[in-house]
Model the fold of this input.
Amino acid sequence: MILVAIVTYNGLKWIDSLLQPFLYDRDQLEIAVVDNASTDGTPDEIEKRYPFVRVLRRPSNLGFGAANNLLMEEVQAKECYEGIFLLNQDASISAETIRALADYSQQHPEIGILSPLHLSSNGAVEQGFAHYLPEPPYHGFTELSFINAALWYLPRQTLLKVGLFSPLFHHYGEDLDYAHRVRFAGLKIGFLPHLTGQHFRPSTAISDEKTLRLKQAYHLAEAINPLLSPLLQFYRGHLAPFGEALLSGGNRRRSLLKMARNLWQMRPMMKLWRQRPPLDLEGLQRALNRKELAPLLLFVYNRPRHTERILQNLLQQPEITHTPIYIWSDGAKGADDQQAVEEVRALCRQIPKAQLHCQPTNKGLAHNIVEGVTNLLQMHDRVIVLEDDLILSPYFLRWMNDALTLYAKEKRIAHLHTGTFYTSPKLRNNHPLYFAGSWGWATWQDRWQELWEADGKQLLQQLEQDPKLYQRFRYGGFMDFPKMLRRQITGENNSWAVRWHASLLLHQKLSINSNPPLVTNDGFDGSGTHSGGGGRYHTAVAPYPLYADPIAPTSEDPEAYHILRRYYARTNNKVMKGWYKLKELWQRYFG
Done:
């Protein structure tokens, strides 16, 4: 079976030329469409006119690569597929040609990407395809360094060896990056000239804005090109665009400098991408076979910009279409906040199927979280919790659901956390700690009902009765959580997290933490309840899937504890606090 993968976005005018070839001939083919939130009725018309097509409707535009990844993962996970054919919405090809490509590929396992000859609507070789062709004539398989992904056949072995499109690219450049990785894996790219497909790409003038996006995508692909040395990656990915900007003038210089800055700021994400782990096929299969997903509880207040961003992050998650969403909106403190609160609620009402709970008065973050989590865990046996100032990896929900399922019966584990700010090369994924992080966390009904203790005074008394646990809670004096707990008792703060942390430590319950992080906090801009900290907690989030370890840990990871303690020692002294405060002020007023 070959999966024909089509990504659509407002492609109504193309669907007949796209799908009619499969109306009477789709032997050995399954046709699937991922629709990127079209507004012109594309998915409705496909289902009406071509009921044999499987349509996956997305609530937001994932871009070309991420949308294709949804179907590419299916081919990775299921042995019934021999390969996948990526078909642009503005292209057309016969079922017979796809089968011929697959047959040739099966006989030549050294080929990673195989394509037909791309023709335009007038029968000539399509201009974009012709750009990469050698001089004719062409006899049999013709190897190229790159073919655009309008008409790609990828055998399953390519997906298992090379992986998916990189999420670093939204719409342009993902196919160039993939071609680099295919060649790096020792596979060939090429086309068969006796097989043809049509690509109806309009030959219109390219705007300056699109030219800039294409240029940035090219430099990004070069910055992570595995075929290049690190020095060449740095030159082509960063120095070259910066140099071009300096040699330009006016608006062009400003645009190119902005592009160069964007590329520079992506370096932490590029580094993570280069360090991505091999495919976890068992984890992927668990994810795709999971029938029930945990509910998501999002807390919002009066920050429309933060709220809009995290809602967009959530809509990019592959699992979001089957995730129950609950949004808990706190009431305004006064008239000055009312408009912002209403703007936030209006944004939340745009999310399909989300249940919005609006507090009539201001309860405060801690009261809101405790009330929301407690109420939701009366209806569900588990919950994933987020606040509005977080930035998510596109694979946040995947790891959370995997861990919630695998550890549901492991009573020693009470907490899951993905905002791992204390990163280190020695830190393993799924490391266990007696630590309750609050940036992207989850728990289970039975743990919350058994362990949550609202009385901070009682928790502190219990800790003081055990000097060893008390010192553990202080992290060697580098992070004074007992002081934070005392301040909660006296009303100087209203932290729920320090009480949850203390309770888990007293009961010797573990938290499982992802690494790299799947969440980072961007709320240290003076806009939040617990602002402060500057950039000390900001990290890049994993641009690839992570999965939980099927073998549940039974004790704390000593190395992880020492890494966290050293992190607090390094960042929580007076000098570093002052430095981060200056960075925070600079960002707030000049950033």
Remarks:
- The longest strand covers residues 188-199.
- The radius of gyration is 26 Å.
- The chain is about 45% helix and 15% strand.
